[in-house]
Amino acid sequence: MSEAQAGQGAPSTPDWSAARYARDARFVADLATPVLDLLGPVQGLEVLDLGCGDGPMTAALAARGARVTGVDASADMVAATQARGLTAQQADGQALPFEGAFDAVFSNAAIHWMPDQDAVIAGIARALRPGGLLVAEQGGQGNVAAIRTALIAALAEEGIDTTLDEVWAFPSAPAQRARLERHGFTVEHCDLIPRPTRVDAGMEAWLGTLAAPVLARVAPDRREAFITRVTRLVTPALRAEDGTWWADYVRLRYRAILR
Ligand code: BEZ
């Protein structure tokens, strides 16, 4: 994946563990092949994998013949990507340090961790050559709404007043399309895709891994009770009669060309 610490570009230490992510969140990469396919042929192209996480999509891009660079805000994730023999560097996705260096930018399940969406899209536009391609999937409007609402309620019970807007940005399709156009892109498509996703590891594991930056705000001696409380709150919405857990994902998927 590639998720990031609140206010950063992708999973960021100390709130992210590459090993834990690999164990509990592999489904994030497993579901990303259709997004990768949207890039088309990448043989010989310079490609940036924004929010590379522990590198599964970076590896997939390399296997398709791209000359790929992964970036992630988390040192742990960058090290895990490099350990696969791939090129990766630590960077804040809201302040990308590249100028006209890439033919394409790919990003899966990362951009929603970057609250300053304008800074992200501006940085991607800077990183691309004219005519360069952006293919991304992130959380969109209504993403993990039941989980987010439960987190907000449980945080309030801990005396923490937040909407979590400073952690996650889940734009609507019209808003993201307008943002892309403002930053010089011609948008081929930008669509919201509801995708309830089975969470085999269970809701407590999902929270422990994918909401790690939120949990970090809770006092360490309250975290276990907090996770139990959030799990209870989401049960009516997200636990099926057969006991399986579902996360209420809504993806925002787009393909755009830099003018
Ligand atoms: C997502 O991929 O949409 C997501 C993952 C973790 C927390 C919130 C959203």
Could you explain how this protein is built, in words?
With 259 residues, the protein is α/β, with parallel strands linked by helices. The protein has 11 helices and 9 strands. It has helices at 18-24, 26-30, 33-37, 56-63, 75-82, 117-127, 145-157, 173-182, 203-210, 212-215, 223-238, and strands at 46-50, 67-72, 87-90, 102-108, 128-139, 185-194, 197-198, 246-247, 250-258. The strands form 2 sheets. A 7-stranded mixed beta sheet has the order 3-2-1-4-5-9-6, with helices on both faces. Strands 7-8 form a two-stranded antiparallel sheet. It is globular and about 50 Å long. Mean pLDDT is 93; it is low at 1-14. Bound molecules: benzoic acid. The site of benzoic acid (BEZ) has 10 residues, from loops. Benzoic acid binds next to loops.
Comma- or semicolon-separated keywords:
259 residues, alpha/beta, seven-stranded mixed sheet, two-stranded antiparallel ribbon, binds benzoic acid
**Compute the gyration radius: what is it?**
18 Å
**How many helices in DSSP terms?**
11
Major sheet:
7 strands, mixed
Biggest sheet, spatial arrangement of strands: 3-2-1-4-5-9-6
Question: Could you list the spans in which at least 5 consecutive residues all have pLDDT below 50?
Answer: 1-14
Average pLDDT across residues? 93
Q: Classify the helix fraction into a percent range.
A: 25-40%
Which secondary-structure class do the elements indicate? Answer: alpha/beta
Question: Which percent band covers the strand fraction?
Answer: 15-25%
Count of extended strands: 9
Hetero groups in this structure are: benzoic acid
> How far apart, in Å, are the first and last alpha carbons?
28 Å
- Name the shape in a single word: globular
User: H/E series, N to C?
Assistant: HHHEHEHEEHEHHEEHHHEE
